[in-house]
């Protein structure tokens, strides 16, 4: 394994790039493996440094790990700058104190989150000015040498400590200098983001990190410095090839950041925009601020050559401008996600149908201030593979009858329609009718189907013989699905989940399994009032050697102890709980 060809090793480590444990273990194999592992670990170093930032257990030890990693980054930045200036061995007294890193870590960076960058810098400062760090004479010398080299002036132990504790300008200078060096030395960034760490409820549990998000903290003072990286020397080369932008902390500086980035980054393929932040949150989005955000988004989208994915969260659509901007990208746009997006008029999103190259369409939550006909039909997207509508209010969604024609949506593979909070029979019936008539190649089907929808369910399941995953929920009254089980034939079904008081006999279940002979791998039943020993006997008999997992939660009827013991012997993963202990 240690002598594998380079291209083979590269593929292996690409597969392991999200497995931090395996990557760290690979460092110890040999130098070649170490280099590949370091290359992937340092693609996003600030997230790695703050891996536990949303953990209640983030403490002093984690701060030390963060501090040591950022210190190594800064040392790498300083050594790279020295080489470009002199191209000779280090000779100055300050540089001689700074160790030479094994790798050029900066060259591996491909993704940066600006919030994590700022947080990592402030955590590094807290680490190097801690009592534990200050007890080490060699560490103090390295710290002062780093400060002196970064700031290009003499820094002593006394002056650095005094400046850090009493003068916020000191940390702002350090941050600005680090950001400038990063822009000069990173050859190409693939992804840039601003995640709102302060909005994670779990961050509040860590007293160490929570302190950074107070108004008087030094972290709030350095925000402007990392927001201005677009204007730093070298930023044009560094950011020109960015393909992914994610903004989840929208402040006035972030709006200017979007405008500036639009002048440089022309090749974005994915934009994620979330307005749930400290200023633009819920009802606090004022009309003037909203118009500024929309104007910045317009500039950003218009500047792109081939946008493929657009995701919008927690926002209000009060006009047609956003969809009109996306229409300009219709030749390349293949994924659109709206989550908790409030739409004042359905006509504002009716133009989504012109995005004919969409392969994924997700509309999750949000309010529709209209009871007009739902203007988006699945049959208008010839390449659509994934369609999901969840918990829209109001739920009176129904397609216009003139849209239901003989077009076959042969590419659709996944259909998800859940209105758990706001179930409407008319909406469910209309949409299921469209799916059964036009979507014959479904592989994944998930739906809330309750009162009066069993006929439409049967139509969908009989018209889609290649279904592999089915999840159906019913949380109201018991519905009989015996006829459905006896008529449906699904020869590829691997996962079946039924939630709610569905009524079916062991005989119907047996008929379905005998006719279909599915490779059913997982069977999940939740809050069932009809499931008894006879049903489980059928599963064990008809799916012997195939069934890996049986998950029975909230059962109203108790299964016999002997049968449960026998099931555990033949099914690898068997879970069972009755309603009285749920």
Automatic annotation (TrEMBL):
<dbReference type="InterPro" id="IPR001810">
    <property type="entry name" value="F-box_dom"/>
</dbReference>
<dbReference type="Pfam" id="PF12937">
    <property type="entry name" value="F-box-like"/>
</dbReference>
<protein>
    <recommendedName>
        <fullName>F-box domain-containing protein</fullName>
    </recommendedName>
</protein>
<dbReference type="InterPro" id="IPR032675">
    <property type="entry name" value="LRR_dom_sf"/>
</dbReference>
<feature type="domain" description="F-box">
    <location>
        <begin position="2"/>
        <end position="47"/>
    </location>
</feature>
<dbReference type="InterPro" id="IPR036047">
    <property type="entry name" value="F-box-like_dom_sf"/>
</dbReference>
């Amino acid at each position: 394994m240690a002598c594998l060809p380079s291209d083979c090793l590269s593929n292996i480590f690409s597969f392991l790039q999200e497995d931090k444990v395996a990557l760290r273990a690979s460092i110890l194999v040999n130098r070649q493996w170490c280099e590949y592992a370091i290359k992937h670990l340092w693609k996003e170093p600030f997230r790695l440094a703050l891996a536990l930032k949303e953990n209640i257990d983030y403490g002093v030890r984690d701060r030390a790990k963060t501090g040591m990693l950022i210190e190594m980054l800064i040392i790498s930045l300083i050594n790279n700058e020295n080489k470009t200036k002199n191209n000779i061995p280090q000779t100055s007294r300050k540089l001689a104190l700074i160790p030479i890193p094994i790798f050029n870590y900066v060259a591996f960076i491909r993704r940066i989150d600006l919030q994590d960058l700022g947080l990592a810098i402030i955590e590094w400062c807290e680490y190097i000015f801690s009592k534990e760090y200050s007890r080490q004479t060699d560490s103090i010398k390295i710290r002062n040498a780093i400060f002196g080299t970064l700031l290009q002036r003499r820094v002593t132990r006394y002056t650095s400590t005094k400046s850090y504790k009493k003068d916020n300008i000191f940390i702002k200078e350090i941050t600005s200098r680090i950001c400038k060096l990063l822009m000069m030395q990173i050859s190409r960034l693939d992804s840039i983001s601003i995640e709102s760490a302060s909005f994670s409820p779990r961050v509040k549990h860590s007293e160490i990190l929570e302190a950074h998000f107070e108004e008087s903290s030094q972290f709030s003072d350095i925000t402007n410095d990392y927001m201005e990286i677009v204007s730093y020397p070298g930023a044009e080369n560094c950011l020109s090839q960015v393909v992914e932008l994610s903004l989840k902390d929208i402040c006035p500086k972030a709006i200017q950041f979007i405008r500036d980035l639009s002048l440089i980054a022309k090749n974005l393929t994915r934009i994620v925009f979330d307005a749930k932040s400290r200023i633009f949150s819920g009802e606090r989005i004022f009309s003037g601020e909203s118009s500024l955000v929309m104007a910045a988004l317009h500039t950003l989208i218009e500047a792109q050559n081939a946008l493929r994915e657009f995701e919008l969260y927690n926002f209000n659509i009060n006009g047609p401008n956003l969809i009109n901007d996306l229409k300009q990208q219709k030749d390349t746009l293949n994924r659109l996600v709206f989550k908790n997006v409030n739409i004042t008029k359905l006509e504002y999103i009716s133009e989504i149908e012109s995005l004919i190259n969409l392969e994924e369409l997700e509309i999750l939550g949000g309010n529709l201030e209209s009871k007009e006909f739902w203007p988006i039909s699945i049959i208008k997207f010839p390449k659509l593979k994934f369609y999901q509508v969840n918990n829209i209010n109001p739920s009176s969604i129904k397609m216009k009858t003139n849209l239901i024609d003989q077009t076959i949506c042969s590419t659709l593979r996944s259909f998800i329609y859940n209105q758990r909070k706001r179930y409407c029979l008319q909406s469910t019936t209309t949409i299921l009718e469209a799916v059964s008539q036009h979507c014959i190649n479904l592989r994944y089907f998930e739906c809330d189907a309750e009162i009066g929808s069993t006929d439409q369910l049967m139509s969908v399941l009989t018209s889609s013989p290649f279904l592999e995953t089915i999840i159906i929920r019913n949380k109201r009254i018991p519905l009989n699905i015996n006829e459905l089980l006896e008529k449906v034939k699904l020869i590829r079904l691997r996962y079946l989940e039924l939630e709610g008081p569905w009524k079916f006999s062991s005989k119907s279940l047996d008929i379905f399994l005998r006719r279909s002979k599915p490779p059913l791998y997982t069977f999940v039943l939740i809050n069932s009032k009809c499931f008894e020993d006879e049903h489980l006997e059928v599963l064990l008999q008809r799916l012997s050697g195939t069934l890996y997992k049986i998950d029975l939660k909230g059962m109203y009827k108790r299964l016999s102890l002997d049968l449960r013991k026998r099931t555990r012997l033949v099914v690898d993963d068997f879970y069972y709980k009755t309603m009285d202990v749920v």
